Amino acid sequence: MVGDKARGEMNAFQRNESKETLFTFISAGDDPPKGDFPVQKKSPKLCGSNYPLSIAFIVVNEFCERFSYYGMRAVLTLYFISFFHWDENLSTAVYHAFSALCYFTPVIGAIMADSWLGKYKTIIYLSIVYVVGHLIKSVGAIPSLGNQVVHVVLSMVGLFLIALGTGGIKPCVSAFGGDQFEEEHTSERSKFFSVFYLSINAGSLISTFVTPVLRGDVKCFGEDCYALAFGVPAALMVLALVVFIAGSGLYRKMPPQGNVLLEVCKCIGFAIKNRLKNRSHHIPKRDHWLDWASEKYSKKLIGEVKMVTRVLFLFIPLPMFWALFDQQGSRWTLQATKMNADFGIYVLQPDQMQFLNPLLILVFIPIFDLGLYPLISMCKFNFTPIKKMATGMILAGMAFGLAAIVEVKINETDMPQLVPKESLIQVLNLAKNPVQVTIQDQDLFQQPVEAFQDPAEYSNLILNGEQQNLHFILQHQGLSLTFNYTVKEKSVYSLIVFEAEGSLSSRLITDLKAKPENGLAAVRFINGLSQDANLTIDSKQFIAVQKNYGVSEYLLLERDKYSNGKCITEMGEFTLDLGLLDFGASYTVVVTNVSGDAVKTWKSEDIKANSVHMAWQLPQYLLISAGEVMFSITGLAFSYSQSPASMKSVLQAGWLLTVAVGNTFVLIVAQAAPMAQWAEFVLFTVLLFAVCIIFSIMGYFYVSVDPEDLREKEEKTETPSRGNMISLVTQKTKL
Description:
The chain crosses the membrane at residues 67-86, 92-111, 123-143, 149-173, 194-214, 226-251, 307-325, 355-376, 388-406, 621-641, 653-675, 681-703. The chain is an alpha+beta fold.
């Protein structure tokens, strides 16, 4: 969830290289970037220290922006399911399409900042886009505003603008913070990045806990308040923009320096084009395919691009880790909706479990850096960056293996999957005596059904087509009565048997096919009184039920104890006590008679409540968060150590694109290969383990490079030969 440090969010050092970039252009023999380089004013200091006052505005801005982004994203999957009524696969696909777009757009932001507007103006303009996206998204969540088409269009436009805004400013904000420090204040800059990273995780931690509360605990328009859950992040983004603009007079604003990423792409493109152009000519082979760019680009630039492409090649397997990691906000949240969220002193919302990741990251980083890694080093084990990353992959795969086991246990309380020419049925005997039920051509209900007996489970009806007219024979106190009902395939029924006007009667009613969504409880009422009844539940939900065993529609209620309901009839007003309506359960409540100032009821649990506790998700969150620390933070630090200073922005773009590709893979799987959820978890586990093996092999043969050696070589020799360059780039150091 919050690998922003590891994903390049606060690694400004790799982009804060104006001097190195200018040096690269000049030493490469190219023209320096156009435009003047004015001397930047010094920002006022914070409390007499070497810390610029301007960084306070940047840190607050980042906290609000991260609160805004992660708060909105925390409730996004449930919004698609509950508000749009999309299925889980479509909701997951759109969620990951949005996440992927958020990590494609940083390339746009980097190009805008480096080649055109500069970091400050890029942040301002894209933050405005960001705010507009949030506002449109919030308005689109107001139920009374138009039909569903309007809601979907507004939400998709809002999400697109949010993705453009959050992705576009991602490579700029941290680098802009680094620009505020003078070159000699390196230790202060380093501490700033620690505070910056803390603000990222603090914003994420608080928002992923708070916004689900705003969604689920606050009701507006008679349902979950998604408009508020999106509106508060929108307000925080407005505050982020206001705070950032407020510090305008204090900032050191560096002019655009020219985009290194574009230069690298041009160099690679020219090399490929030149190689293809000369493929038929008898020209001597060159040591490396990038050497075909030497006619236009300097040897230094080509050498640096070689180093970058080697690291980018190592990035190829990495998207699979992100494919698993980012499912915390989609598949794992959906899994939590089918679990018991009662922790005794607090009932968690299913989307609140995501707060565990930023919390665990803050806990694990010092544990790993100060405890685990030194301990491993004391054991004389060479725990290289490649091995750490592979271990992180294994931990993430294990997390999904545990998620699959949890999903299997959850399915034990779910309704059976219906197949063609099959339906489910149960009998609710509301008469005073046992009833023997026989159904034409069916071998069911061998024993008499006792009065007010809670059925253990549904029975299977086998039909001879899409629907069939069946004879139901009821034997009661020596009498035999036959009732005819048409039964459709892939449906769930309850046959209610009751006494009416001194005789036995029955009614076939349709039940829910699956558990209520989002951990809600479903309840319907059968009125066994001789008078119509108006029922009020929790002073909010109202329903009218006709007399003589009339059946109501289902009500969806939050999990709670409902003991203060009201039943209003011609005889008066009576207390209605439903007891506990539990997570994911479906109930039939029969109002039997009036006793004193209350009505007597009998409650049948048609679909079992969620019995697997949400705490069983904790091990998988522990594993994947530990995997993130080992994989993500280590991976970015390693990749930057392998690239020249002027190319670190290229590595940042490549790293962010691995996140985008991983999310794209998830949406493809969700749409192209629908399968049982536990099987999908197993599939991702197997794929990550396979990719881990491939990555480990690639890492074994990878040869590390110290970019400083290349720089020192260049300083000693103004025009190094191609042989020396290649020798330097391929020095043997196993990782």
